[in-house]
Amino acid sequence: MADETLPPETWQWLAQASTATVTTQLFKRGLRRMHMVGVRPVSRRRRLMGEALTLRYIPAREDLDVVEVFQNPEHPQRRAIELARPGQVLVIDARGDTRAASAGHILATRLCQRGAAGLVTDGALRDMPAIAEMNFAVYAAAASPAMNLTVHHAVDIGVPIGCGGVPVFPGDVVLGDEEAVVVIPRHLAPEVARDAAEQERLEAFILAKVEGGAPLPGTYPPDAQTLEEYRAWVVARERRPGAPGPA
Amino acid sequence: MADETLPPETWQWLAQASTATVTTQLFKRGLRRMHMVGVRPVSRRRRLMGEALTLRYIPAREDLDVVEVFQNPEHPQRRAIELARPGQVLVIDARGDTRAASAGHILATRLCQRGAAGLVTDGALRDMPAIAEMNFAVYAAAASPAMNLTVHHAVDIGVPIGCGGVPVFPGDVVLGDEEAVVVIPRHLAPEVARDAAEQERLEAFILAKVEGGAPLPGTYPPDAQTLEEYRAWVVARERRPGAPGPA
Amino acid sequence: MADETLPPETWQWLAQASTATVTTQLFKRGLRRMHMVGVRPVSRRRRLMGEALTLRYIPAREDLDVVEVFQNPEHPQRRAIELARPGQVLVIDARGDTRAASAGHILATRLCQRGAAGLVTDGALRDMPAIAEMNFAVYAAAASPAMNLTVHHAVDIGVPIGCGGVPVFPGDVVLGDEEAVVVIPRHLAPEVARDAAEQERLEAFILAKVEGGAPLPGTYPPDAQTLEEYRAWVVARERRPGAPGPA
Amino acid sequence: MADETLPPETWQWLAQASTATVTTQLFKRGLRRMHMVGVRPVSRRRRLMGEALTLRYIPAREDLDVVEVFQNPEHPQRRAIELARPGQVLVIDARGDTRAASAGHILATRLCQRGAAGLVTDGALRDMPAIAEMNFAVYAAAASPAMNLTVHHAVDIGVPIGCGGVPVFPGDVVLGDEEAVVVIPRHLAPEVARDAAEQERLEAFILAKVEGGAPLPGTYPPDAQTLEEYRAWVVARERRPGAPGPA
Amino acid sequence: MADETLPPETWQWLAQASTATVTTQLFKRGLRRMHMVGVRPVSRRRRLMGEALTLRYIPAREDLDVVEVFQNPEHPQRRAIELARPGQVLVIDARGDTRAASAGHILATRLCQRGAAGLVTDGALRDMPAIAEMNFAVYAAAASPAMNLTVHHAVDIGVPIGCGGVPVFPGDVVLGDEEAVVVIPRHLAPEVARDAAEQERLEAFILAKVEGGAPLPGTYPPDAQTLEEYRAWVVARERRPGAPGPA
Amino acid sequence: MADETLPPETWQWLAQASTATVTTQLFKRGLRRMHMVGVRPVSRRRRLMGEALTLRYIPAREDLDVVEVFQNPEHPQRRAIELARPGQVLVIDARGDTRAASAGHILATRLCQRGAAGLVTDGALRDMPAIAEMNFAVYAAAASPAMNLTVHHAVDIGVPIGCGGVPVFPGDVVLGDEEAVVVIPRHLAPEVARDAAEQERLEAFILAKVEGGAPLPGTYPPDAQTLEEYRAWVVARERRPGAPGPA
Question: How far apart are CA A48 and CA A139, in angstroms?
């Protein structure tokens, strides 16, 4: 669903943007709650970018959620992982329940092997010491050694879910960094990405001025004169190859 | 789905059982978490019994969840109510989020008009003063004057959900009283109902003895002699018309 | 500050509106969080309407907050009460801390004697059994027998505060009913009041139709035909003296 | 342990004091946290006074906490009830865990039969509709239909415990009203009781003045003149038979 | 109590097992809640294994919990540390209250000097910067600079307690790693240890296959063919000296 | 306000004291709650010492808190930063609300440029990856990518506030380390600093003894003999240049 529809520059721009900047762009469009609350990076790789593949859990029932269910290859948790395609992020709605794991090291490894872009849950993960060492972008709310069956029953793949207080529709763009995970509604991704890259460039300029001793008034936010300086700086900078920003 | 499959005596027996007693019967079958946490009766009618019709919410998104959506008669919240059949309980998965209402007085009134058995949400309701006066079994976690669009986006009808920490599958039996709401997996309902009615009868006998000064040892739980007395009491009692218990 | 500026019909209209209806009117104007969370009616009188007089607490410090401070008539808690004018609602920012009381029965009695419209705190109150019997509109988050000095230090009167998660500016309109307390920014009060009264009238009409068996589609929200019926009903109704709604 | 040691007037004075007043007296003696947090009256009788008999729970373990344990009359939960003597209050340390009941209707009935003064738990109770009707002072944090075995394992009787955040030593005086439960260390009970009764009498006088229109300065707290009036009022009042206060 | 009763291979096997694996083995035996919630490793040494020595706290009382109490060498907190024997883990029930420390650097140092295996509390610790550098296994829920007397009163040594939501009996086996602390009932330790070591070996094999590109079906859980491969791998591996697993 | 009033040795002594030690000194003076709860170091520099400059937030209102407000150089958030003087710590009362940032990297950079000693908030910060790298003492309760306008409205500078549950008056001494932030009332700072430095020296001596195998009784707390040894050690140590402690 992803690469054919979203233009490549969307991804290039997003690759330059922090979740803070994207959150500001969403705020400007009236979306105030697209950043997950309580979901943090837990692996060595702390930059996540991809399209949402969703998995939904409900509370476990002791007679249904027994160890034997995993013998069934169609069990939704296992099936979701085998369905994941390159560039997708598996996003799990665990209802914020961290008393047991949403998944563990072997499943994260398989997801990584399939080329997925990452794993996000608002629940816990187990085998955290091993996951912490993975070069795969993994985000979770906590660590718990308990099997997912202890409190979770996997039911659905590919439906709209909530995760960390955010609505996630299949195909939405998921961006993560050291600070947070933010979800960009798919239809807004191109314009948000473009404006976020521009904002990053402007803020890099402002930061340099502040580091040089400039006071906030006139600088942040920039007044007409600062913006003029900025535009000159951009022109000069774009002459260098590989310069960031929405060229 | 309901009346044709569950035998009538299941309902007769359940009508005599408290949620505490049913919870004990579920515990004896290994199910320890079938009672909703934080969901309380809020209307004048405080006895609920029916089959689950489920409705699922995810977090709202400000661009999708605008007042105009209700112009669409297929909006899942409105559609669920118009689908409800006599004897069904509308159970809403509001993710325990009580910052806005799951529904209000007009919708509860329509649901009641359609012959539904009740309304349960692990979120809030609005227009609580009016709902409190209804002769319709309504359970919720809180009151909130805010429209559901403020934090909720309705997505699905008739799928397995979580509500108050309990898994709810469409068609499960939902029982509520002054104390709690408990969910009985449909296939267990007949046997749980029968044993619950029997337990109620036995505990009525035990309570009478304790009120008469009997000590706990030998009485609660009953020893062989107390059980013998109980059986005699049951025989005597059943000669009277209208006596409760699983005849 | 109140009666001379806000037109009398604003108060007449508000007197007909529930907090749920006012919250909807605020939502339509982009204000989604003006209802206090966790603050409930605790006295016999459960209808509150007035203008905010604010009082701010910070955490107590054991060396400053000793019983002797009340010897000083300028202590902000006592001073605020003696400053209250008829029609004002004393709104206390207790940081949501319910481990000790914000005030008690004697202070609530004095506030009532001064003609104030009510008392609201996002903390606790003490002497709740007595306050519950008062014919004075009192709202709080909990009961606590502990003196306010145990956790609170009163600092400011008449400054903008937060209460129950809502910003409250001095002079804002405070409305409470059985369900909630909602704050209306002063400059919006006239239009919100007018539209709320109109919404109440329309919803009374819709409710009557639903109680009569009308399905939701076409009725709630009303389509063109239902609106026409409504207008006819309004005309007929207004011929009666004392009919509510924004005449 | 109780009646022989504590002088009868201690109980007479306490019978006139609210938990708010006793909490103030404890505050004056440097004890700021002797009122239970989150524990509320749940039965018809809402005045509790007695000496603590303690019962301690730890988390349940599924292999130990099975229905069969109650066959053993020495099970600590059952044993504690059969040990209770007239005037004692059974105080249960349930670690604030309300996911299952600490006890239910039959046990509360037996406790009442044994002449106990009341039942307090910082956990939940089951069979709340029946307990609500009892003429026995019962306090709890919540209702839960689940058996105590679901989350609790009873271990100890008669040891110091925590309940509602308060340290409770066997023999401490437990006082409850509509507002709260407060624990008075046994050795402080006589003086706290005396001063609380006096404070109640003074505040009754002050309240009457405030109801009559007196301003706070000079009245609350009372200045020299108000105190003189008060003393005259006390003298006049004591001439009447049955007048309260520490005679 | 420890070394003479538990066979040495139990400890050897446990030394190879993660808390996640042990939690799965306990789940298979019906024990779903033996892992502490909210308790995390805080020192450099993050592998804990030993037998529980328990210490119980209740809430502090300001008149009892004054600095002078530590002059008494029999104060339970200090006494527990001087009682600790090599191989024991001091497990403190701090009721999950992290507002003050359960212990600090000097006490942890003394415990380490006595040869104890570690320190676990569901409360906080103070002097965390120094504790973080210790080569001693320490687990806690938080850091707090406040003395334990601020909120804790130590009462009992060697009694059953709750810690992190888990029942802990003296002599139970306590296992900790980077992820969690799990408690193994003493009588189950030998069989849980054996099966956990075997599970670790099998999962190492499965992980290697998944890292090599194997899909989940047939591999995790393993089907008959994968199990046959595994057995061959075990045979080949056991020919090497020092190979892990329950030989 | 600072350097002219507080004697230089106060700062020298505080520079040697941990927050744990200062908290003990405050406890000895009856102040039990001067350490912030939930506020943690987030930058590379983890030693904070300075005088409080306070900034107060209340909940945001969507019509007031729009991006354009920052065009006004008098916006309190921006103004507070431009007012900060060398040695001051900007302490923000964010009501513990971490759903949005209190500030971000550019503002922290400007504050650092102005010579401020640090930044403390009981809310969140954004741009955490960049702030984590700053050589500026920054403390916060969480990371959030959302702009402060999303939930905060800045109102006041230089008034008493609450932060992390602690009362903070302008000019109070703020001390932070790896463990916590503690606030010392300004008038107590000299004596608390002196006694804290002395306590640090004594505990260094005790720790060395415990590391050498000394038992707790007689050592911690020290008895007469240990204190004598300590005094000899102090004398010997003070002959060395640069020795810490309140010379």
Answer: 9
D87-106 core/surface letters (b: 16 or more CB in 10 A; e: else): bbbbbbbbbbbbbbbbbbbb
Is the backbone peptide bond immediately before A167 cis, with ω within 30 degrees of 0?
no
Top residue of F34, F54, F55, F58 to mutate, by most chain C CBs within 10 Å, is F58
Catalogue all structural domains in chain A, each as residue range(s) with its CATH number. 35-184 (3.50.30.40), 191-238 (no CATH)
Please tell me chain E's helix, strand, coil percentages from 3-state DSSP, rounded to the nearest 5. Answer: 35, 20, 45
Q: Tell me whether residues A58 and B162 touch, CB distance under 8 A.
A: yes
What tokens does D193 get? 């009781």
* Residue A83 CB-density burial (10 A; 0-12 exposed, 13-18 middle, 19+ buried): middle
Contact across the interface for E70 and F19, Cβ inside 8 Å: no
Instruction: Give the separation between CA E22 and CA E197, rounded to whole angstroms.
Output: 9
Cα D120 from Cα D164, distance rounded (Å): 10
D63 and E29: CB-CB below 8 Å? yes
Cα E117 to Cα F185: distance, rounded to the nearest angstrom? 41
ipTM score here?
A: 0.94
The amino acid occupying position C147 is M
Q: How far is CA F56 from CA F48, F92, F154, F162, in A?
A: 20, 6, 6, 9
The minimum CA-CA distance between F109 and chain A, rounded to whole Å, is 7
Q: Which of A17-47 are b and which e, b meaning 16 or more Cβ less than 10 Å from the residue's Cβ?
A: bbbbbbbbbbbeeebbbbbbbebbbbbeebe
Instruction: Tell me how far CA of residue C223 lies from CA of B75, C132, C207, F145, in angstroms.
Output: 15, 44, 15, 42
Distance CA(E246)–CA(E198), nearest Å, equals 6
Candidates A73, A105, A144; nearest CB to E180: A144
Per-residue pLDDT of chain D (247 residues; tens, 9 = 90+): 444 689 999 999 999 999 999 999 999 999 999 999 999 999 999 899 999 999 999 999 999 999 999 999 999 999 999 999 999 999 999 999 999 999 999 999 999 999 999 999 999 999 999 999 999 999 999 999 999 999 999 999 999 999 999 999 999 999 999 999 999 999 999 999 999 999 999 999 999 999 999 999 999 999 999 999 999 999 998 777 665 555 4
Contact F80, F107 (CB under 8 A): no
CA distances, F232 to each of B19, F218, F229, F242 (Å): 72, 17, 5, 18
How far apart are the two ends of chain D, measured CA to CA in Å?
A: 26
Cβ A99 vs Cβ A144: under 8 Å: yes
Which residues of C are less than 8 Å from D210 in CB distance?
106, 109-110, 113
Tell me the two tokens of residue B142.
């809180």
**Cβ of residue C179 closer than 8 Å to a chain B Cβ:** yes
Instruction: State how far the alpha carbon of B93 is from the alpha carbons of A98, A150, A159, B101, B160, in Å.
Output: 19, 20, 15, 12, 10
Q: Which residue has the tokens 């591999």?
A: E219
Q: What count of Cα atoms within 13 Å lies in the side-chain half-sphere of residue A182? A: 30
The yes-or-no reply on B/F contact (3 CB pairs or more, < 8 Å) is: no
Residues in chain F: 247
Rounded Cα distance, F19 and B197, in Å: 61
- Residue A69 burial class via C-beta count within 10 angstroms: exposed 0-12, middle 13-18, buried 19 and up: middle
Q: Structure pTM?
A: 0.95
In terms of DSSP bridges, do strands A118-121 and E40-41 run parallel, antiparallel, or are they unpaired? Answer: unpaired
Q: Closest Cα to residue C201, out of C152, C164, C236, C156?
A: C236
Residue with tokens 């473009």: A194
- C-beta separation of A67 from A103 below 8 A: no
Q: Does A153 touch chain B (CB under 8 A)?
A: yes
E124 and E101 in contact (C-beta within 8 Å)? yes
The answer to whether C137 and C178 are in contact (CB under 8 A) is: no
